[in-house]
């Protein structure tokens, strides 16, 4: 389950079991090197309090424990300016010292630790850290014991905080690369008013409307690599493979990375496509929030489309049996998706009869509840 701390969303990343195993390995390796000598473990507060507590319980031989307290982080960024809040409170001359850090990021804090120990004349000084971000590390100091290497993304839990919160969590959570999004798959039979409503929704919720048809036309017209690839299939009279469409949608999603979400229109059409779209959103740390289908009785649809046909000039809007066929085809095609999203409790049918504002209000009620 995702969590929210202050303004940010985080997803589960490292379980307590994995943390436990990492600490177990660290205790084993450190003891193997130190042997029978009594080491002094120095925890770096605040973040390391959980680690130190669990670590010393796993250390198989007698040891001493003390703490220093440093502070460097502001929000989700490391700063150069390290504050020494509590220094060493005991003489460590001639002792075997192991620093216990919760996490090493840029290594700035480590620089300060070496300054603290410069004149202490300890017998040996070793660095042990539970988490290490190799891509963020900017120093040359050797790290003697590493619990786990992790990507350069902000984490919370197990002693680590985001502006004070999250330290008490027993497992590690990672910041989500996209924050909370509302992603809708919008459906409606011909004449249901899908286009009109999509326009209102995208304004009201700051969503980006991705109509697959438009995306195809755009890519082909602008001769993008994906457009040319899609065209090569179409020219042979073949269906464009789902992956090509997904790649195009991916490009649209990436172009609009700071949107509050997306309205997908014209995609997915099959279970396989719905799976692929789900994976795409998952790769952005997001998900499809809902499939919303506008529901309108066939007779009303036929009337609306015939009315539109008087001005639209589209031949297929002027013939009742063609309109009825298009409606039937719509239900045949969307039935599977209705099932697919219903199974995830993500299907919402919305009454599409009434004036435009009433329908927008009904759609908003669904979205506000997601
Ligand atoms: P460094 O000085 O950049 O190596 O950062 C070390 C300190 O920054 C740690 O002791 C933490 O307090 C904090 N820190 C670094 N990365 C994270 C993180 O991902 N989440 C929470 N705190 C972090
Ligand atoms: Mg720390």
Describe the structure.
The chain is α/β, with parallel strands linked by helices. The chain folds into two domains: 3-175, Rossmann fold (3-Layer(aba) Sandwich); 182-368, P-loop containing nucleotide triphosphate hydrolases (Rossmann fold), CATH 3.40.50.300. Helices cover 41% and strands 24% of the residues. Helix 1 crosses helix 2, helix 5 crosses helix 6 (225-235) and helix 7 packs parallel to helix 8 (271-283). The longest helix is centred in the last third of the chain and has 24 residues, at 320-343. The radius of gyration is 29 Å and the shape is elongated. The chain starts with a strand and ends with a helix.
């Amino acid at each position: 389950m995702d969590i929210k701390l202050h303004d940010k969303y985080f997803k589960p990343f490292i379980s307590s079991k994995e943390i436990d195993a990492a600490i177990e390995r660290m205790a084993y390796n450190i003891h193997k090197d130190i042997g029978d000598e009594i080491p002094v473990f120095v925890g770096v507060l605040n973040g390391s309090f959980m680690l130190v507590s669990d670590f010393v319980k796993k250390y198989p031989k007698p040891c001493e424990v003390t703490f220093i307290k440093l502070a460097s982080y502001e929000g989700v960024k490391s700063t150069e300016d390290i504050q020494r809040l509590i220094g060493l409170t005991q003489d460590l001359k001639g002792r075997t010292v192991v620093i216990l850090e919760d996490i090493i990021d840029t290594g700035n804090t480590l620089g300060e630790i070496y300054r603290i120990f410069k004149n202490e004349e300890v017998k040996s000084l070793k660095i042990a850290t539970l988490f290490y971000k190799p891509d963020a590390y900017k120093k040359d100091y050797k790290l003697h014991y590493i619990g786990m290497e992790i990507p350069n993304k902000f984490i919370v839990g197990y002693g680590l905080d985001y502006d004070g919160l999250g330290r008490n969590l027993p497992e590690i959570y990672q910041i989500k690369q996209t924050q909370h999004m509302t992603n809708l798959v919008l459906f409606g039979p011909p004449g249901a008013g899908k286009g009109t409503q999509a326009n209102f929704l995208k304004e009201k919720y700051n969503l980006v409307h991705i109509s697959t048809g438009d995306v195809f036309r755009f890519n082909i017209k602008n001769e993008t690599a994906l457009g040319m690839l899609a065209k090569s299939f179409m020219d042979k009279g073949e269906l464009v493979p789902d992956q090509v469409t997904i790649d195009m949608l991916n490009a649209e999603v990436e172009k609009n990375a700071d949107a509050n979400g997306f309205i997908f229109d014209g995609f997915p059409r099959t279970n396989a496509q719905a799976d692929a779209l789900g994976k795409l959103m998952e790769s952005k740390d997001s998900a499809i929030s809902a499939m919303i289908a506008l529901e309108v009785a066939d007779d009303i649809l036929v009337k609306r489309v015939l009315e539109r046909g008087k001005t639209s000039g589209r031949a297929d809007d002027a013939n009742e049996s063609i309109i009825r066929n298009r409606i039937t085809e719509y239900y045949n095609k969307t039935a599977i998706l209705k099932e697919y999203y219903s199974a995830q409790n993500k299907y919402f049918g919305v009454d599409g009869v009434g004036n435009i504002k009433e329908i927008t209000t009904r759609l908003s009620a669904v979205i506000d509840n997601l």
